[in-house]
Amino acid sequence: MTNFLWGAATSPHQVEGNNVNSDWWKRERDFPEMFDRSGDADDSYHRFAEDMRLLADAGLNSYRFGIEWARIEPVPGHISRAELQHYRRMIDTAFELGLTPVVTLQHFTVPLWFSHEGGWLADTAIERWRSYVEATTEILHDVPWIVTINEPNILALMWLLDDALATHGIEGLNLSAGAQTLASVVPDEGISLRLIEAHHAAREVLKSRVGGNVGWTVANQSFERTPGNEELYSTIKYAWEDRFLEASRDDDFIGVQAYTSQQIDANGIVAHPPNPDNTLAGWAYRPDAIGIALRNSADVTGGVPALITENGIATADDERRIAYTSVALEHVAAAMVDGIDVRGYLHWSALDNFEWGNWKPTFGLIAVDRSTFVRTPKPSLAWLGGMARNGPPSA
Ligand code: BGC
Fold first, then answer.
1. pLDDT band at 168; cut points 50, 70, 90
2. CATH of 5-389, one of 3.30.70.1230, 1.20.1330.10, 3.20.20.80, 3.40.50.1110
3. pLDDT at res. 167
4. Distance 69 CA to ligand 1 centre (A)
5. Does this model's pTM top 0.90?
6. Residue 241 region by backbone torsions, left for phi larger than 0, else alpha for psi between -120 and 50, else beta
7. CA neighbor of 240 nearest in space, from 154, 356, 298, 120
8. Distance 227 CA to ligand 1 centre (A)
9. Pairing of strands 263-265, 224-225
10. pLDDT band for position 188 (50/70/90)?
11. Is residue 151 lining ligand 1, measured as CB closer than 6 Å?
12. Ligand 1 centroid vs 380 CA: distance in angstroms?
């Protein structure tokens, strides 16, 4: 028996549906030219047990999901007991099915009221966030893995996007560039530092009240340097990810997330040129990215244990998903052989879901019919379950 975690991940806004009190719901409503609506999403809010059972039946032993702040605290200071109990039922269901729950407390979305108060930069932000985290501890006593904030670096980029929308309106943005635009800029320092403060505040609350491992997740762009541009490479890598990794040195684990890799040249981050080989997210096909990310995370955190909390590919071709993941796992195994402490592999994503304004990039091991909500597992789910049955990734 091994306790290596083999699982899949989702986030509340992307799968639950009708997250009406959140900032993202408003963004989708306000900028329909830019964002598809999340709507009912996958209705996983009601169908979570079915989703978890599919993962468990396939042979996986873990599920990463999130708790939605906008549901727990729909207006400031009002904690919904019923919603807390809803998420407790999710935790219980995971345990009953033999799935180790990995629970995220904040995955890009915040309550609309929090955003109206000024979001993460408001004077009250840390106090508000801390009191939400305190409320969640009531249901987290036996959860072994808790992620405070998902990808603070991408959250900081979303802040820039919001700012640009507020300043220039929709016309000021290059919409066709989409995710590409985000991947070519650098997270804002002020918001980055505030998110680090928030992570540390949450960690303090959690460590004093519950027993699980506490960490956060970082989006790794798995940057590659080009000759002569080492200094710019280090500066960008620091602002993009190393700043957040350094802030994890006293955590119990670091959540490693990687999908692709980008070069840094004399002008900064090189956009992925259009290429037939690119994934449906417009990213270069780089199954080696997770290996680069694991090594950089271990290096910068000083060897904090890694949990791969996301890795996967947006594709309509499930064989390609298996091919990508199989090579990614070889890179995970190689990193482990080199001594990197990896505690688990959670694939992104369990379900095809709402990819932040776009339904087209399908990352799921399970397809979902968005009118009937019927779930159809793809061959990659059984394949990943088979890998799980063989123990930790091996070289
Ligand atoms: C996020 C997910 C997202 C995935 C694919 C990560 O940035 O945590 O919410 O769906 O990457 O883009």
1. low
2. 3.20.20.80
3. 73
4. 18
5. yes
6. alpha
7. 154
8. 30
9. parallel
10. confident
11. yes
12. 19
